[in-house]
Amino acid sequence: MFRVEATRGDQVESLHRVSLAVVDGDGRRVAGAGDPDLVTFWRSAAKPFQALPLLAEGAAASFGFDDRHLALACASHSSEPRHRALAGEMLERAGVREADLACGPHPPISPEIAAEAARTGAALTPLWSNCSGKHAGMLALAKFRGWPLVGYQLAGHPLQRRIQVEVARWSGVSEDRQLLGVDGCTVVSFALPLRAMALAYARFATASEPAARQLRQAMSDHPGLIAGTDRVETDLGEAASGLVIAKVGADGIYCVALPWAGLGLALKVEDGGMEAAAVALLEALRQLAQRVGLGFEPAELPPAVTRHARPERLDTRGGVTGLLRPAGALRFGDVGGVVPPATSGTGRP
Predict the structure, then answer these.
(1) CA distance 1 to 192
(2) Residue in 27, 80, 56, 16 with CA at minimum distance from that of residue 230
(3) What is the Cα–Cα distance from 153 to 102, expressed in whole angstroms?
(4) How far apart are CA 53 and CA 326, in angstroms?
């Protein structure tokens, strides 16, 4: 069983089970763990595919969005000043207001930024939402297409129907088979099998379409904008520049595009543990590198990355009480067959 163990002293105190799928762009399963067909919500790991219509429809070019804005449209950011400023710039260029954002404010993901906001009494507005870049991009596309701004986040709105088509095209799960919910930021969220999420990322990793290539480059060049300071996606993206693009999702989701290997990875920590998800991600990459090669060697990554692999658990005085550590092995080879091709009628990207 592939898992993350939480220790206290020398004893294992709790277990975080992990399900995982790794596939290539044709849907062949390279590796798996737990239940690779587990249906769960994609959460924020869906953001690149929610952002692609912004480029494909011409809205990004029309409003002068550069690669920084595109990266932020895919972000689960830490509410750092640079993140908030870029989100505000996207709204200004698109000619929409912060009041149009459907996302609500929340304490920043970054403990340092959250503490600073509390200390200074900062008024948290929708721009502080980790999803403000995604919402700004959605509003920009709605404005460009002449769709209503009110309700842009809701299922059935033309914007969300357009995104569903995009999700179907990359994941192979047609619109009528996508299970929909509401994400924490109020927008539509998709529940898909892990292997379908992995397929979307595998296709994204090597896609030649101009929109996909530009978005992939933006995410690769600006990992600090899709996450933030001291975040594993940022540290990993900076250390393995261009060879790995990682995107977090809430409740224990990580997805990764591996362009050199032409693979996509999707994992879910079944109890939703986010710190355990980062540990599982780095261990999965380590095992993959040993078996199939990824164009970089995880063991040679700098401490900025490896510190996320076995984080210590601390008491209230800062003393070490234990750690989180990976355990178990991935299953390699075809562990369930080929993912069916897209059934939405739009064809493979």
Answers:
(1) 22
(2) 80
(3) 7
(4) 37
| Nearby residues of 272 by Cβ (< 8 Å), 6 or more positions away | 250, 251, 252
Cβ atoms of residues 8 and 321 within 8 Å = yes
The pLDDT tens digits of the residues spanning 284-341 come to 999 999 999 999 999 899 999 999 999 999 999 999 999 999 999 999 986 444 444 3
Which residues are CB-neighbours of 121 under 8 A, at least 6 positions away?
none
pTM: 0.95
Q: Measured in whole angstroms, how far is the alpha carbon of residue 106 from the centre of its chain? A: 19
Please compute, for residue 68, the number of CA atoms within 13 A of its CA located in the half-sphere on the CB side: 10
Among candidate residues 30, 35, 12, 36, the one with its CA nearest the CA of residue 327:
12
Q: Could you write out the DSSP letters of every residue in 286-337?
A: HHHHHHT--SS-GGGS-HHHHTTTS-EEE-TTS-EEEEEEEES-PEES-SS-
Residue carrying structure tokens 């996606």: 233
Span 3-332: which CATH code?
Answer: 3.40.710
Distance in Å from the first CA to the final CA of the chain = 34
